[in-house]
Amino acid sequence: MLPATRPGSEDSCKLRRLRFTYGTQTRVSLALPGQYELVHTLAAHQGSWETIPEEDLEVRGDSKDAAHVLAELEVTVHHALLKEVDIVVAPCQGLRPTVDVLGDLVNDFLPVITYALHKGELSQRDEQELQEIRKYFSFPIFFFKVPKMEIIDSAPRTESERSPLYRQLVDLGYLSATHCNCGAPGQATKALSMLVEQSEKLRHLSTFSHQLLQARLVDAATALNLVHCHCLDIFINQAFDMQRDLQITPKRLEYTRKKENELYESLMNIANRKQEEMKDMIVETLNTMKEELLEDATNMEFKDVIIPENGEAVGTREIKCCIRQIQELIISRLNQAVANKLISSVDYLRESFVGTLERCLQSLEKSQDISVHITSNYLKQILNAAYHVEVTFHSGSSVTRMLWEQIKQIIQRIAWVSPPAVTLEWKRKVAQDAIESLSASKLAKSICSQFRTRLNSSHEAFAASLRQLEAGHSGRLEKTEDLWLKVRKDHAPRLARLSLESRSLQDVLLHGKPKLGQELGRGQYGVVYLCDNWGGHFPCALKSVVPPDEKHWNDLALEFHYMRSLPKHERLVDLHGSVIDYSYGGGSSIAVLLIMERLHRDLYTGLKAGLSLETRLQIALDVVEGIRFLHSQGLVHRDIKLKNVLLDKQNRAKITDLGFCKPEAMMSGSIVGTPIHMAPELFTGKYDNSVDVYAFGILFWYICSGSVKLPEAFERCASKDHLWNNVRKGARPERLPVFDEECWQLMEACWDGDPPKRPLLGIVQPMLRGIMDRLCKSSFEQPNRGLEDSI
To answer: Where is it localised (predicted)?
Structure first.
């Protein structure tokens, strides 16, 4: 449809932008891109034509209309290819930069860029243009060198005979020196630019377009999956936080109440116990400080009282003021000594009680989101009670009244006689009378009484504010539990299913649909097939799961997310990917194909075939290591059993089938697992990761027995219900004669009916190593001895 153009210089080129689009009939029009059609007479409108007239393709040099210069020539053609594709030919470089043209298109289209050249090398202008494109866009480009008509294409060049054009594109970063860049299909996730220099290879444009569009789909699926996984992780982490809040807040409140009560009782004991000490301390202080107090009183400079320097007598009012200031001096010194004695005891309690208690209160008040921390303030008042006791002559005690009576008598005597002169001897006499009038026992009783009163008041206020705080948390925790249930049962499963779908789309785009080989086994929820090769992994095992309902879909989706989120570990079976097969069973159902690492056999088959003692103990260590890793990631397996432990060709164990595996925060209390390996608390719906320790105890029984024969206590059970009832009542596997004493003790500890009494796997692991070193070393030294001889 385009005319054969005459060769010309790039500077003189005036060809406008051209767009081929679909239409029911062939027509040509001039239009501003994405806006409106221009009313303009074209040469193509004047009559019939086979190729588009050249004058319609060119922008006239004398045109001053900006719209006419920017307008593109739109050609509608009745062709099936154009139903979903527009072909845009960029204008000459002098009219509009190619970067701007691409910028107009990339937001609305998925561009497949072809760059045609008729010369053997890029011009300087071409290189600048390609550098600009690479700077602003990351699109690969299909480069096509148009061969000269008179030259017959030669044979393909060797690596050492690459064309100058090829080397230029390598230098610009469009082609790779290590990749063929010839359109051969590969496993690369990113589409690469391609150079074609022979006309018969132009067919590679189809391959290039396919790779480019597939890479775009992979990028979109990857971005979508990242969003799904990120949101799902947020929900799961939120569930952890909510569960922790539900568990820890009541314990914090109880801890706070208990510790404050202990603190209160300890301080009250101090107040009661210290009274005699206080009395002795006051007597001792007065005796020790008497001379110092008398000396200080003698040298005291009175405030707000004018004393004549010549020693003349002063008035009664000034005498009273002087006596009061001497008393205040004595009392302030005594107060300081008493407070220091009490504070030393309280500081010891502060170190013993208060640090954790204060932090606990802060966290409780912080979660309540209140600006004034009333409860903490009352706790501080309890602690500061010792700082606020006072020895005073105005305390209302009999001692004070007696002292004031003496002072009044002194003043009255002074009043009947002429007022005394305020001399050093007079000040010393007043101080001495005040000290001698104090009763140590009465003062100690008064001090301790003040201390107890303040403590009682603060303790009652603290208890009231804690009850108020507890009531506030009670309402908040009810809302938190409702939200936790929604996250666990609604939001997280729905997001997990979306994540599974986006990841499966990504995997099928990258690696295609796996081919099912021979059947390897069947489980409760799926069939396992052999898969020779998929995604660069071989051989593989393919687990086909057909979820019967929404709940199973959600469980499967969450299982997949947990498995994909786990870092690779040598004691867990690797999951390579997933594909959703919408045509499974002839289209009657949807199946999820989980492609995972293929191992040699399971532990059940291994024990039936016979394994040495050392191999079996190593398998036990491998299983413990795998469970420990799951627990470190916040996951509980909940279905540890013989058939979920797979062995490689060296008989090293890996844990598989995370179908019941969940974070503790996401567990709903559902009864799952294999009856023989199920801990008693699973039937109550309230359990934690110690159920895996119980299941390992049962598994270890089989490992030590060296066979797959059921324990007698379980073999006698006629049904699952009968078995569950017996397990709840304490039925456990019997001790076999071949068991080593330490092995038996370890089994019994693991399947203890009280979950907190079961050993941590971090303790089990070194115990197993010790057993293995002892038994296997003795077996090596005496090869004819079996496990039963090691007892």
So the answer is: Apical cell membrane; Basolateral cell membrane; Cell junction; Cytoplasm
Catalytic residue among 639, 657, 692, 740: 639
Question: What is the C-alpha to C-alpha distance for residues 670 and 686, in angstroms, rounded to an integer?
Answer: 9
Residue 53 in 3-state DSSP?
Answer: coil
Give tens-digit pLDDT for 532-574: 899 999 889 999 999 888 888 888 898 889 888 889 999 999 9
Retrieve residue 519's tokens: 């059947």
Both tokens of 48, joined, read 């019939």
- Cα distances from 39 to residues 21, 33, 36, 483, in angstroms, run 19, 14, 10, 63
Q: What is the C-alpha separation between 584 and 592, in angstroms, rounded?
A: 9
* Residue from 553, 506, 519 nearest 659 by CA: 553
> Are the C-beta atoms of residues 619 and 519 closer than 8 Å to each other?
no
**Cα–Cα distances in Å, from 749 out to 64, 689, 706, 740, 763?**
94, 15, 20, 14, 11
Q: What tokens were used for 116?
A: 């045609």
DSSP state of 351: I
Work out the angle between the directed axes of helices 741-750 and 761-781 (0-180°, nearest 10): 160
CA distance readout (Å), 207 to 188, 193, 202, 204, 218: 14, 12, 10, 5, 16
3-class SS at 762? helix
CA nearest 660: which of 669, 651, 650? 669
Nearest CA to 619 out of 715, 696, 678 is that of 696
State both tokens at 536. 């660069």
Separation of alpha carbons 576 and 564, rounded Å: 9
Check if 171 is active-site: no
Q: How far is Cα 379 from Cα 455, in angstroms, rounded to an integer? A: 10
Element holding 769 (H helix, E strand): helix 761-781
Is 543 annotated in a binding site? The answer is yes
Start-to-end CA span in the chain (Å): 95
Q: Pick 185 or 503 by higher pLDDT.
A: 503
State the SS3 of 558-578.
Answer: HHHHHHHHCCCCCCECCEEEE
Q: What is the pLDDT of residue 319?
A: 79
Cα angle: 507, vertex 512, 517; to 5 degrees: 110
Residues near 742 by beta carbon (within 8 Å), at least 6 away in sequence: 767, 770, 771, 774
Distance of CA 624 to the CA centre of its chain: 25
CB atoms within 10 A of CB 341: 17
List strand residue ranges (DSSP E) for 631-735, in order.
Answer: 635-636, 645-647, 653-655, 662-663
Domains recognised in the chain with CATH numbers: 18-219 (no CATH), 278-470 (no CATH), 512-598 (3.30.200.20), 600-790 (1.10.510.10)
User: Residue 154 pLDDT more than 70?
Assistant: no
- Output the CA torsion sign for 144, 146, 152, 158: negative
Handedness of CA 549, 554, 567, 689 (dihedral sign): negative
Question: What's the pLDDT at 791?
Answer: 34
Percent of the chain with pLDDT over 90: 36
Give the Å distances, CA to CA, from 523 to 519, 640, 692. Answer: 12, 14, 20
Q: What is the per-residue pLDDT for 372?
A: 47
